[in-house]
Design goal:
CATH class of chain B: Mainly Alpha
Radius of gyration of chain A: 20 Å
Strand order of the largest sheet of chain A: 1-4
Structural class of chain B: mainly alpha
Distance between the termini of chain B: 17 Å
Structural class of chain A: mainly alpha
CATH topology of chain B: ABC transporter involved in vitamin B12 uptake, BtuC
Number of domains of chain B: 1
Radius of gyration of chain B: 19 Å
Distance between the termini of chain A: 56 Å
Helix content of chain B: 55-70%
Strand order of the largest sheet of chain B: 1-2
Number of domains of chain A: 1
Number of helices of chain A: 11
Number of strands of chain B: 2
Shape of chain A: globular
Shape of chain B: globular
Oligomer: heterodimer
Helix content of chain A: over 70%
Largest sheet of chain B: 2 strands, antiparallel
Strand content of chain A: under 5%
Largest sheet of chain A: 2 strands, antiparallel
Chain lengths: 312, 324
């Protein structure tokens, strides 16, 4: 393979990976924008979304098949279910804590994430669960680059979801209210906005997007695991920070950048130039976390974020 | 205006029941006496488990300084534990160092790790700090797994246990007493620190960072001190852990470990030393009692943690002087 082939291949991989990161990062950034809470449990909602999609698919596949159509239906139902789960989590665990000290609410969020993770551990006995989708292996060749239909559909669906989110936030009444609450909660309340309802909508939409990513990941990679939300939660948070937490276009951009960075990093090998430096796949997570730490230290507002004062 | 924080009371709710020094001393003596005879009146299994709980007392006391005293959420505390264990493992195995020479090295490297993670990140918002420590913990674990020097995924085996004045510390009972002594020293140091100038500075920074800074407290320096002291506790725990088991692997230092140590600190009541001790025994003994339920025990734990945060944010131990 020539350098160009490797480049286009990793570009494709990076875009696919970046779509997952972006979808999950959106939930982080929306929740953070509206309630200033770092929702540690968000990665777990991705995991639960994957399992919810699996459950729906195993019930419905005799009727609608396990191809992309079946997966799409499962995805939509999983999005609705996990969206409501997100709202319940907000009502039960976060709402009573919003005025508590920061430390307490962070630990509560961590506890929610552990409940979801270990609940699934108990249900699945820690085993990998095959997703059961049958997606086919077709695709098109562009020179030496093979793009599978699955990759195309996946990126297309992710782009569609993000586009609809952007329309929702910028064009609808709810979206406008959401942006108002993000700027000033008390003032929004005075303006007649039902702040609690808007917070619920935010959690619903953010969780639903994570569930969409979870279902697609399950269908695309073929299996599910109770711990799969941990790593992507951390990565998506990194993506949200790269783009500037609180900024919706930032989360999309950050997801894409992180996906590309990771894909190219695995090919990074400077040993040919006499520098003993190679990232490789076993170091790619270390690489991403280092990027996270570097960005937080050098530019904590990210690429598109606004400077912000810590709440006291 | 911020309220004046209550006087530093590391003993928390205990002070309500044990109001005099004499009563406190009696209880402590009885507890110590019980702890001293445990390995002789019970079996090996219980001795090993209680030893494990004592290790967690040491680790959680360290994390308690970071989370409880200084109010910084650290989700990667296992990293310091790992640094201590791996320093001992590598230096005794590959460089033939004596355990007692490796121990100060472990402390030294853990302090450096504390400074490395602390210096650039302590200016961050508290939730960013939490996630950075999480990332840092993962970096340390993955590094240990990927490097040849740390033995990769299988880790390091055959670590010598230490000698004390010609006596070879190797049986379960020996290590029981080693950890008991470490836990006692850890408690004493924690209590002394809480009542020191530094301890009061932590209290102020935790309650109101800006007011503390206005009073001339260098908040970055004070937070960094908390990190380094916590890291030293972690490293000492890790060093003796490596010597006790004789084998270490990256999976002993995963995110789950960090969470378990954090749970110890939160269960008993953040910042309170009797709470930490109680928490360590709950976190270590409950899974043993719940062995039949298998994987469900972590779930039960997580639910417990959530309920505590929602209904008893200051811990199981009733806080007499604590304010809501």
């Amino acid at each position: 393979m020539t350098v160009f082939d490797i480049f286009t291949n990793q570009l494709l991989n990076g875009i696919v990976l970046g779509s997952f990161y972006a979808l999950v990062a959106l939930g982080y950034t929306m929740v953070f924008g509206v309630v200033k809470l770092l929702n540690f449990a968000h990665g777990e909602l991705y995991m639960v979304g994957g399992f919810a999609g699996f459950l729906v698919l195993s019930f419905l596949s005799p009727f609608i098949g396990a191809g992309w159509f079946g997966v799409a239906i499962s995805m939509v139902l999983a999005m609705i279910a996990v969206g409501f789960l997100g709202v319940v989590i907000e009502r039960v665990a976060y709402a009573p804590m919003l005025s508590a000290p920061r430390l307490s609410i962070l630990i509560t969020a961590l506890a929610v994430s552990l409940v979801l993770q270990n609940g699934m551990l108990a249900l699945t006995k820690g085993q990998y669960v095959p997703f059961g989708s049958a997606l086919g292996f077709g695709g098109i060749n562009l020179g030496k680059l093979f793009i599978s239909y699955n990759q195309m559909i996946l990126v297309g669906v992710a782009a569609l979801l993000m586009l609809s989110l952007e329309m929702f936030v910028s064009r609808t009444q709810y979206g406008r209210a959401m942006r108002a609450v993000a700027v000033d909660k008390d003032m929004s309340r005075l303006m007649g906005i039902n702040v609690n309802a808007i917070i619920a909508v935010t959690f619903f939409v953010g969780s639903a997007l994570a569930a969409a990513a979870g279902t697609m990941a399950g269908a695309f990679y073929g299996s599910l695991w109770y711990f799969m939300g941990f790593l992507i939660g951390l990565k998506a948070f990194t993506a949200a920070v790269i783009g500037g937490i609180g900024s919706i276009p930032g989360a999309m951009l950050g997801g894409l950048i992180l996906g590309l960075l990771e894909s190219f990093a695995t090919q990074l090998d400077l040993r040919g130039m006499g520098i003993p430096f190679k990232v490789g796949s076993e170091w790619k997570d270390v690489f991403s976390f280092s990027v996270l730490i570097l960005i937080l230290v050098l530019k904590p507002t990210g690429l598109l974020g606004k400077p912000e004062q810590e709440r006291m | 205006m911020a309220q004046l924080p209550e006087r530093p009371s590391s003993w928390g709710g205990l002070s309500a029941i044990l109001d005099t020094r004499a009563k406190q001393a009696t209880v402590i003596c009885v507890l110590l006496l019980v702890m001293a005879v445990v390995p002789f009146v019970t079996n090996d299994y219980i001795t090993v488990i209680v030893t494990h709980a004592l290790l967690y007392v040491v680790l959680a006391l360290g994390l308690n300084i970071v989370v409880g005293y200084a109010g910084l959420l650290d989700l990667g505390f296992a990293a310091f534990f790992a640094v201590g264990a791996y320093t001992v493992g590598i230096t005794t195995q590959y460089f033939g160092l004596n355990f007692w020479l490796a121990l100060p090295l472990a402390v030294f490297f853990a302090s450096i790790a504390g400074v490395i993670i602390g210096t650039p990140t302590l200016r961050l918002r508290s939730d960013y700090l939490a996630i950075v420590t999480l990332g840092f913990g993962e970096i340390v674990r993955l590094t240990a797994r990927n490097l040849r020097e740390t033995g990769g995924a299988s880790g390091i085996r055959g670590i010598e246990s230490p000698w004390i004045f010609g006596y070879h510390v190797q049986s379960n009972i020996d290590f029981y007493f080693v950890f008991l002594i470490l836990a006692i020293i850890g408690v004493i140091v924690s209590v002394r620190l809480a009542n020191s100038r530094l301890g009061r500075a932590w209290l102020y920074v935790r309650h109101d960072e800006d007011a503390a800074e206005a009073m001339g407290i260098d908040r970055v320096k004070v937070k960094l001190a908390a990190y380094v002291v916590g890291a030293i506790y972690g490293a000492i725990g890790g060093a003796f852990f490596a010597a006790n088991l004789g084998a270490i692997s990256p999976e002993s230092f995963s995110f789950r470990q960090s969470v378990e140590i954090l749970m110890v600190v939160i269960l008993g009541g953040i910042g309170k030393i009797p709470g930490v001790i109680l928490g360590a025994f709950i976190v270590i003994l409950t899974p043993e009692l719940l062995r039949e339920v298998g994987d469900l025990r972590y779930f039960i734990f997580a639910i417990g943690l959530l309920l505590i945060m929602l209904f008893r944010p200051s811990g199981i131990w009733p806080a007499a002087r604590g304010k809501k």
